[in-house]
Design a protein that fits this description.
alpha+beta, 4-stranded antiparallel β-sheet, 15 helices
Length: 449
C-alpha cells in the first residue's frame, strides 16, 4: 500500500491510499479459511463447506471488512509515524469517487484530515500570572470551631425551643377563623425545622415556644410554597400540597436541642485525633485545615488566570473550521447546525486551551502513574470527608475507600484527567513568575463577579 500526502493548507491535508489486491488478498483468504471452520450449511458437515462456496456467498463482505481494517491501520500508522496532530477523525474526501469493492481489485481512497495549527509557547519568568492567597481570618476560624462543636455535641431534650432546634408534635389544619377544620389535614408526630424556614416571621413563631404549647403558622409561607417540603411536613401527597395556603396549628410534644461540645481535650481529639490535646493545637489545626481548603480555591483561580495569560500569548489560532463543523455534524446527526454555528467560537477557544495543555504535557513529558491516580482519589476523599467534619479518618478505611473508587473505570478516567491537569498546572506554576497577592475571602469572591 502506497500513501501520498497532499497539503491543502496549514491545517488541512489529504492522504491518498493506493491499494492493490496483494495488499489484502492474503488476509481475505485467511478470513475465508477461518470462516469455514465454524460454518454450517445444508448438505455439508460443520467446517467442511467448500472455500469456493464461502467465497461466493460471503467473499465481498469479507473483502470489505479486511480492506477497512487495512485502511484504518494504514491511516493510523502513517499518522503515528509522521506525528500528525490530527483534529477530529479522518473523513473520506469530497473528491473521492465511489469504489465498488465487489469488482475492483486495485483502487485509491482519499481522506481529508484536519491538522492542529502550529504555535509557539513561552513558559518562563517573563510570563506573569496572578496568584491569590486567601487570608484565614478569625471569623473563619470561629465559624469552623462552632460548626465542629455543634457536630460533635449531644442532642438533648429541651423545654423551650429556639430557631435551631428540631421540633416534633401534632399538626392540624385551621379555618379562616383559626379553628381546627373537621376532616381537615392532620398529622401526628410531625417534624419541623424552623432554621430552614425561608420566612423570618414564620421562623420567629417557634423561637421561645415551650413544650406542649401550640403554635399557629403557615407552611406555605414558611417554605416559600415549596410543595415537596409542605408534603413532607404535613405527611400528605405533593399534589395535595400544591396550592395549599391554610394556616396550621402545631402542638409541640418534643424539642430536641443540639448542645455544643465543650472546648476540652475530648472534643479536640474527636476532631483531629489523639495527638491534638490542647486548644493551641486545635486552633492551629483548624487554621491549617481552612488554609488547605482555601488553597484549592487559589489553585482554581490560578488555572483560570494562567489560561487567560497563555491564550493571550498564543493569540487566535487558525483552525480547519469547515472540516470540524462537517465532522461534528456527521458524528452526531441530531446536532443542530444553527446551534453549532453559535457555539463554535467558544468551542475553538476550548480547543485552543486543550492544545496549549497538550504542548505543555508533551514538552515537559508529563506522565500520570497509578500512584498519581491513587493520590488524586485520596485527596478527593479527604476533601469530601472534611466537609462533613470527618477529617480524622483511619488510614485503613481511607485506603479501602480509595480502592473502591479507582476500580470504577469512569471515575478512574476522571481522576486521571484531574491528575494530568494538576501536573500541567504544576509545570506552569513552577515556570512562570507569580504575582502573589493576599486577599480576604470577600475580595477573592469579587474576582468572579
Amino acid at each position: 500500500m502506497n500513501i501520498t500526502k497532499k497539503v491543502v493548507d496549514d491545517v488541512n491535508i489529504v492522504l491518498s491510499l493506493e491499494i492493490v489486491k496483494a495488499d489484502y488478498n492474503d488476509a481475505v483468504e485467511k478470513a475465508i479459511k477461518d470462516a469455514r471452520k465454524n460454518m454450517q450449511m445444508p448438505g455439508f458437515r460443520k467446517g467442511m463447506v467448500p472455500a469456493s462456496l464461502v467465497r461466493k456467498r460471503f467473499g465481498t463482505e469479507i473483502k470489505v471488512d479486511e480492506v477497512n481494517k487495512l485502511i484504518n491501520k494504514g491511516l493510523m500508522d502513517y499518522i503515528n509515524e509522521n506525528k500528525v496532530n490530527v483534529l477530529g477523525e479522518p473523513m473520506v474526501d469530497d473528491s473521492q469517487e465511489r469504489v465498488d469493492l465487489a469488482t475492483a481489485d486495485d483502487f485509491t481512497i482519499s481522506f481529508a484530515i484536519a491538522v492542529a495549527p502550529e504555535f509557539t509557547l513561552t513558559l518562563d519568568n517573563s510570563v506573569k500570572v496572578p496568584y491569590y492567597t486567601i487570608k484565614v481570618d478569625d471569623k473563619m476560624v470561629e465559624n469552623q470551631v462552632e460548626g465542629f462543636r455543634t457536630q460533635f455535641g449531644e442532642t438533648v431534650s429541651a423545654e423551650e425551643a429556639s430557631a435551631d432546634d428540631v421540633i416534633k408534635g401534632n399538626i392540624a389544619e385551621l379555618d379562616l377563623e383559626g379553628n381546627i377544620v373537621e376532616g381537615g389535614i392532620v398529622a401526628e408526630n410531625a417534624t419541623v425545622y424552623p432554621r430552614y424556614f425561608t420566612n423570618d416571621e414564620e421562623k420567629a413563631k417557634f423561637d421561645g415556644a415551650k413544650k406542649f404549647a401550640s403554635v399557629d403558622f403557615n407552611p406555605a409561607a414558611a417554605t416559600n410554597n415549596n410543595a415537596n417540603e409542605m408534603a413532607s411536613m404535613l405527611q400528605i401527597d405533593k399534589e395535595k400540597a400544591e396550592g395549599l395556603t391554610a394556616n396550621f396549628r402545631f402542638t409541640i410534644t418534643e424539642i430536641s436541642h443540639r448542645e455544643k461540645a465543650a472546648m476540652e481535650e475530648k472534643f479536640f481529639s474527636q476532631v483531629f485525633g489523639d495527638e491534638c490535646k490542647t486548644q493551641e493545637d486545635f486552633d492551629a489545626k483548624i487554621k491549617d485545615m481552612i488554609a488547605n481548603q482555601l488553597r484549592d480555591n487559589s489553585e482554581y483561580r490560578f488555572t483560570m488566570d494562567a489560561r487567560t495569560v497563555l491564550m493571550e500569548q498564543v493569540g487566535e489560532l487558525k483552525f480547519p473550521e469547515e472540516f470540524l463543523k462537517k465532522w461534528l455534524l456527521t458524528k452526531d446527526e441530531k446536532r443542530d447546525a444553527e446551534k453549532l454555528d453559535k457555539d463554535f467560537p467558544q468551542m475553538m477557544k476550548d480547543l485552543t486551551w486543550q492544545l496549549i495543555q497538550e504542548k505543555i504535557a508533551t514538552t515537559n513529558e508529563v506522565k500520570v502513574t497509578d500512584e498519581d491516580i491513587q493520590a488524586e482519589a485520596k485527596a478527593m476523599v479527604k476533601a469530601q470527608m472534611a466537609q462533613y467534619g470527618m477529617g480524622n479518618l483511619p488510614e485503613e478505611y481511607l485506603a479501602q475507600y480509595v480502592q473502591s473508587i479507582v476500580k470504577d473505570e469512569k471515575q478512574r478516567g476522571q481522576l486521571r484527567d484531574s491528575a494530568v491537569s494538576r501536573k500541567i498546572m504544576g509545570v506552569v506554576r513552577s515556570a512562570v513568575a507569580l504575582d502573589e497577592k493576599e486577599v480576604s475571602f470577600e475580595e477573592f469572591n469579587a474576582l468572579f463577579a
